Amino acid sequence: MNHTSQPPSATCTSCATTQRLSLIIHNVRYLAHNRHFCTNCLLKNHHGLFCPICFQVYNDSPPPHQRLMCLRCPSIAHRSCALPFSTTTANAGSVPVFLCPTCADHKFSYFNISAADRISRTVDDKSFKVLAAASQIAADSMNKGAAAARFEAERRAVEAAVARKRAKEAMEELASIQAKEEEENSCCVVDLNLDARLNVTEE
Ligand SMILES: [Zn+2]
Ligand SMILES: [Zn+2]
Ligand SMILES: [Zn+2]
To answer: Measured between alpha carbons, how far is residue 114 from residues 11, 29, 121, 136 in Å?
Structure first.
């Protein structure tokens, strides 16, 4: 991780916090665009890629019997991590009901750095895990994005060639229409009154 390479003025696309306030703004490839996300917004926009309790980033999501999915969002937690935070409802049998931290509390923030920590630039254990998860998700997205970007560039080159061809055809068509119109106009030049009348009715 090389955070010093980030421009100091980087701002979160989602919540507009600045690098100075959040410590870190990540470059992310999100929905086919390069975005800047603060740690909190990055995690909130990538539910399902990490456990919201222990902050392990999944290579593959845990097998069904080892995971609990949030009732309201795509977040997936390790069953063992989520059980202490889940409730079992009688009517749903013994299936534990889990709400991820953000769905349980809308004001929840994954990454809170106290003013004192911000000044001393220290990060506690939990915040460090959060930061590491966010950085890994950002890095993964950029790697995937790089492959997608190459594909996109090739696709655009093909599209550009097609567009140029279409534009050329359209120009040729326009030229031939203009030539025809000029030809027709030159036939009608003698009847100025007719032209004038046509213009009136057209308006
Ligand atoms: Zn943000
Ligand atoms: Zn976990
Ligand atoms: Zn949730």
So the answer is: 19, 28, 10, 23
User: Residue 194 is part of which domain span?
Assistant: 155-202
| 105 and 184 co-located in one domain | no
Is the same domain home to 62 and 146? Answer: yes
The Å distance, Cα 129 to ligand 2 centre, comes to 11
Distance (Å) from CA 77 to ligand 3 centroid: 10
Closest CA to 44 of 86, 107, 1, 97: 107
pLDDT in tens, the chain (203 residues): 444 444 445 899 999 888 776 668 898 988 888 899 999 999 999 999 999 999 999 988 889 889 999 999 999 999 999 988 888 765 556 778 899 999 999 899 998 776 676 667 666 788 888 988 999 999 988 888 777 777 777 777 887 777 777 777 776 776 777 777 777 766 555 555 555 555 554 44
Distance 71 CA to ligand 1 centre (A): 24
Q: Are residues 77 and 174 in the same domain?
A: no
Minimum-distance ligand to the CA of 17?
1
- Ion ligand 1: residues, CB within 5 A, are 12, 14-15, 17, 38, 41
